[in-house]
Amino acid sequence: MRPAPPPQAIWSTEGAARGVQALSVWTERVHGHGEDAEPFVAHHWRTDQGLVAVFDGSGGAGAAPVWQDEDGVSHTGAWVGARIARLATDCWFREVAQDNEPLGPDSLHEYLSWFLAKAPQRRSKIGGTMRRQLPTTLAAVHYRVRKTDWRVELRPLWAGDSRAYVLTATDGLQVLTRDHTRESDALELLRTDPPMTNVVCADREFTVDTHDLAAFPLPCVLVAATDGYFGYVDTPADFEHLLLSTLGKASNESEWADLLRREVQGYTGDDASLALVALGHTDFRALRDAFERRYRELAELLQRDRPAVLDRTSARPGDAGAPGAAPADPRETHARIRAWQDQSWQAYRSGYETHLPPASEEHR
C-alpha cells in the first residue's frame, strides 16, 4: 500500500532576479480528507502575467461521499469540487496566457461549469436548500505586469468566502474581494461565520465575481487565502500581522512558507491554504526590509490595550489566564475582548477596505 500523503505541504520558488517571488502553503485538519485543494500559483514569463488562487470545498453543503479513490478511500463532494475547480482554473489560465487575451469571469465560469459537469457525482437522498453538488469556494488574482510604467493590472475573481488581497509596505493589507454572505463587516464575519450565498457548484447557478484595478503601483504582494487562515484570528488585522511577523523571521521564500504553515497550524480550526506572489522586489532581503516599518506600526496597533487573555506569549498577574490569577468573570472578559476588537477594527478598517468591491444585489 502506498504511504499516505503528508497533512501539509509548502512550495516556493526563487525568481527574485526577475522580480517575482512566490510560495504556497496547504494544510489539512483530518489526514487525507482536507477539503482545501492545493493552492495554484503560476507566472507566465513571456507575457508577464500570472495567477494565484485557492479553493475551499464547502464541507457542510457537500458532506456526502461522491467518489472513492484506488485505495478505497471515500471523498466528499466538497473534496472533489475543490480539486475539479483547481483543474478548471489551471486550464483557463493556460488559455489566457497562451492567447494573451484578457479573458474574464464569464470564460472562467464556462471552464468551471464544464469540468464540474464531467466530474463524478452521487445524488444524495438528503435534500434541502443548503445541499450542493461538488461545492467549493474560489478566490484568485489574475495580474499583468506593465514594465513601461512599473505598474500591475489586477483582476480578482471569486465565489464564496475565500479572499484575495494586495499587500504593500505603505498601506498594508487591502482586501480585493467581498465575501458572498449577507454580512459584509469583516469583524462581524469573524464573530458569526454566516452561510454563503454563492459558491461554485455543479447543480445550481453560481457566479464568478470580479472587479479591476487597472494600474496598481509596484512593488506589491498578492495573496489568496481560504478562511482557515483569516477566519480564526482575533481581528482582521491579525492576518496581516501573521504575514509580516513570519516574513520578518525568514531568510528566503521557503522559510517564509514554512513559518506560515507552522503558525496557522497553531491556531486554525480548519483546513488552511494560501497562495502568494511578491512582484517588483529585487530580492528576498529587499522584500523583507520593505515591510519592517509597516510591521512595527501594525504590532503597536494590535498591542494597544490588547486583553492579556488573547496574548499567547504573556500573561500579567490579575489578568485572565495569568498563573495564579483569580478567575475572571466570563462576561467581563467577553466584554473587554469585544471592546478591544471594535477599537482595533475601527483603527484598521479604512485602509483594509480601500479596494473592497461593492456588494452585488443578488448576493445581499
Structural class: alpha+beta
Q: Radius of gyration, Cα only, in angstroms?
A: 21 Å
Percent in helix: 25-40%
Provide the low-confidence segments as ranges: 313-324
Instruction: Write down the overall mean pLDDT.
Output: 88
- Strand order, biggest sheet? 1-2-14-13-9-10
Count of individual domains: 1
CATH class: Alpha Beta
Largest sheet composition: 6 strands, antiparallel
CATH homologous superfamily grouping: PPM-type phosphatase domain
User: If classified by CATH, what would the architecture be?
Assistant: 4-Layer Sandwich
General form: globular
Q: What is the CATH third-level topology name?
A: Phosphatase 2c, domain 1
The number of helical segments is 9
Topology:
Blueprint: E1 8-15, E2 20-27, E3 40-44, E4 49-54, E5 65-68, E6 74-76, H1 77-99, H2 105-118, E7 138-146, E8 151-159, E9 163-168, E10 172-175, H3 186-192, E11 209-210, E12 213-217, E13 220-225, H4 227-230, H5 236-249, H6 253-267, E14 272-279, H7 284-290, H8 292-303, H9 330-352
Antiparallel strand pairs: 1-2, 2-14, 3-4, 4-7, 5-6, 7-8, 8-11, 8-12, 9-10, 9-13, 13-14
Helix pairs in contact: 1-2, 5-6, 5-8
Summarize the structure.
The protein is an alpha+beta fold and 364 residues long. The chain has helices spanning 77-99, 105-118, 186-192, 227-230, 236-249, 253-267, 284-290, 292-303, 330-352; strands at 8-15, 20-27, 40-44, 49-54, 65-68, 74-76, 138-146, 151-159, 163-168, 172-175, 209-210, 213-217, 220-225, 272-279. The protein has one domain (8-303, 345-363): 4-Layer Sandwich (Phosphatase 2c, domain 1).
